[in-house]
Predict the structure.
Amino acid sequence: MVHIKINGLEIEVTEGTSVLKAAEIAGVKVPALCFNEELGHFTSCMLCLVKDAANGRLFPSCSVTTTEGMSVITDDEEIHEARQTGLELLLSEHVGDCEGPCQVACPAHMDIPRMNRLIAAGKFEAALKLVKKDIALPAVLGRICPAPCEGACHRKTVDASVSICLLKRFVGDENNLHPYEPLPLNSKKVAVIGAGPAGLAAAYYLQLNGYQTVLYDKNDVPGGLLRTEIKPEVLPLNILHKEISTILNTGVVFEGGKDIDEIAFKNIKIQYDAVIVATGTLVDEIRNWGFTTNAKGIEANQNSYATSVTGVFAIGNSLRSSRLAVRSVGQGKEVAWSVAQYLSGEVPKGEPRLFNSRFGRLHKEEISEYLKESVPYERVSLADIQSKGYTKEEAIQEAKRCLHCDCRDIENCKLRDLSGKYDANQRRYAADSRKTMTKHFAHSIVYEPLKCIKCGICVRMTSKYQEKYGFSFIGRGFDVVIGVPFNESVETGLAETAEIVAKACPTGALSIKDKL
Ligand code: SF4
Ligand code: SF4
Ligand code: SF4
């Protein structure tokens, strides 16, 4: 047995144990991309660097074995910086979008590519469930949103953007289900002042999360500007009622006809554990409620929406006037995160933001690569968009036009996860121009070489499973790439092991294609 210290903690490990494994035994997770439990170490990514406490030297923990009396530090500023630099170098030549550009452009951050895949597969209920995770009022927004997502859509490079807004409307109109059951009520109560799009969305997500929410509004019926400012030909009242009732049916209590003044606001603050102000464009009366304001509206933290008054949050037009209802609806979702964090005793930070690799516009040569997963026909247009909306068949046809610009491995990608944890900047070492990407479809997987970090796991895995061709390092030095030897296709190279290898790849370079 060998006795070592990991961050000062003494442990005993069997002889021959690596420092990486010893750290794990001590309960410390050291990051690694090229290490694979089944294959062992390869020592190429260098993210598992740790420090020898005796001399301050950094070394890769995956390939160094523990020795008697060793003392190791697994994280400090220097180690953090070294890992961050390692990630930034990997990202500097990484060409891929984690999230589709449409999702990035959507103020509510809706997972549009996945919605399109679900619609294309005829899974409308699942599509509604997905959409409602981010957008509390899809049928409403499907009629009034100016669709910034469509402005960012890569399909525009081919012909016209995917008709995302109409697809979302279709999903909202298609069924009346309540896709989420609210959690059982906890002991906390939240007041939301203002039942416009921001307040409705906030109330919805808080109630779903088990907070008894009371929604106050000066009008007798909820809806705010959605009811007063939009013509019924554009947004029919029955659609607005239907969607508002899905929100109220979660258990939200609506208190209409309540014009809240300074005294009433003080009482609300006393009665409730948290308060959200969603009153719309700020009027002078509200400026006296005690929080810091500026010329545009209430001042609030841009991530958490916390105001200068503890326990009071502000969203929507009360921050600054905007005609973009989707922004208000998105803020309603985000503030629910902050309020939940605040009520759990945490510092409110809002919805967690994940790392997002982005590469910008498509090169001309890349269009054909993206079309491999799509259909060539033009946008399914409607003669009378306002009144008709898509039929099931039209919606499926339109959804199939999506190019699936998001990365299929977004939920399992270790590179994305670590880049977020180490706050890596993709641009720091990036060259001015980038390489042109290709997509190779084979069996049930897709291989995107420009997302590869050359960790060698696929090479070692195909060799271990005795693939006839397998994957191999091709070329030398900086120009080395991972591919199939003898110019064989990916199909031939991964004849028996496509899925095994895709699952082992630490990035989305090799991923399973048909993940909805
Ligand atoms: S491989 Fe990872 S980091 Fe790259 S685009 Fe995909 S999810 Fe993002
Ligand atoms: S083609 Fe699809 S995934 Fe790509 S940006 Fe447009 S809607 Fe989003
Ligand atoms: S394709 Fe192979 S070498 Fe590239 S990241 Fe995936 S497993 Fe590693």
